[in-house]
Amino acid sequence: MFDKKQALVFLSRHKIWLLALSALPLFEVVTAFGTAPDTLTNDIQQETVAYPVTLPQPLPNDSGNFDFWREERILRGDTLVSLLARLGVNPEEARAAAASQTGNTAIRFIDGRSVMARVTSEGRLLFLRYLLDEQKLFSIERAGDAFRASLSAVQPEPRVIMRSGEIRHSLFGATDTADVPDSIASQMAEIFSGDIDFHRDLRQGDHFSVVYETLYQGGNAIRTGRLLAAEFVNQGKAYQAIYFRDPNGHEGYYSPDGKSMKRAFLKSPLPFSRISSGFSMARYHPVLKEWRAHRGIDYAAPPGTPVRAVADATVSFSGRQGGYGNLVILKHQGSYSTAYGHLSRFAKGSRRGQRVQQGEVIGYVGSTGLATGPHLHYEFRVNNVQTNPLALKLPSTYPLEARYRAQFTATAAPLTDRLARLSGRNVAALD
């Protein structure tokens, strides 16, 4: 048995592991401390004991403070230095890591893909992983005070990950707390965007569960894969989505009863932003200094934020137009059209006459035209008349084809079971 001094030394040397365990998500490890019912605690004698304790020296490979894995999506024009900056790496480290690229390791980053890095809280880079394709992995590893870049052949191992969390302040705050990658959080928001307006509908206490794939190589995560299933409980109402790919290669997300989660129109052209000015017949214009109608929705967002088409369409106008500044107008099926103003620039596929798909980027947030700051002016038009999209009942899409129903049911059953187990743990934890 330990005496008191030995016990304190043991605890001090192992406190980092205790802290690490306490930081795990609640639904994965739940530890309870308590007393048996009717235990009398009033007369227990207490004694304060203090002993000097010498803490062990840091290990040679200690990363300093604490470290964590981060994931970032590659944006247009990104370099390794700009990527590392967004991953939290300090500038000196980022430049040194970039200089390690020589010869065949001077690879090109592809827009839309993701990069994972392990970074300390002090901004030191430990590892970087970038999957070029399904068989090639680009890596940067720390070697003392220098870095070594390499290319290697890989056969990634997919693993299914399950997470759940609760909204306290924001969606990304909750997903960060639950250790859910940003790419999965974005996929979840995109899938449920036809049912939930993530700008206005979120409430404290809403909760979510996700089941997704992560690709591993040599025990290390190298890329987050596809979201397989998700549940979001918003204001007491539960929404579920299951990924399904039919024999012809068509893929999408469906509710457990087979209805497509893809709506004819997204509720917003920006995944995450705030409404800075709503639809109104009388608003004081900040530039013109007069009262006039504001027949659209303004979304405040940083310059360069991608703007999405809310539905499949043909580009009917792309150019400069008066107070709108840089403007894109999309013609949808039937009597519907949408307009996107004050853009900083246009996307490649937003030329007049071109077809665009729902969710495709058509431009980027700016402040051109009559604008006091960067934001998107969005209009929803019916027969060319501006209408408040937040008050309009929009058409929905069609269910899964009947011939694939049995196959979908077989695919969905184990995934909905996982969601049920996650939700059960979440409820138990909250109680």
Protein architecture, described:
- With 431 residues, this protein is an alpha+beta fold.
- It contains 6 helices and 22 strands.
- The strands form 4 sheets. Strands 11, 14, 15, 16, 17, 18, 19, 20, 21 and 22 form a 10-stranded antiparallel sheet that branches. Strands 1-2-3-4-5 form a 5-stranded antiparallel sheet, with helices on one face. It has a 5-stranded antiparallel sheet with strand order 6-7-8-9-10, sandwiched between helices.
- Helix 2 packs antiparallel against helix 3 (91-99).
- The longest helix is centred in the C-terminal third of the chain and has 26 residues, at 405-430.
- It is globular.
List the total number of helices. 6
Low-confidence stretches: 1-44, 55-64, 425-431
Report the average pLDDT across residues.
Answer: 77
Distance between the termini: 37 Å
Provide the succession of SSEs. Answer: HEHHEEEEEHHEEEEEEEEEEEEEEEEH
Q: Bin the helical content.
A: 10-25%
Shape: globular
State which percent range the strand residues make up. Answer: 35-45%
Number of strands: 22
Main pleated sheet: 10 strands, antiparallel
List keywords for this structure.
single chain; 431 residues; alpha+beta; 10-stranded antiparallel sheet; 5-stranded antiparallel sheet; 6 helices; 22 strands; globular; disordered N terminus
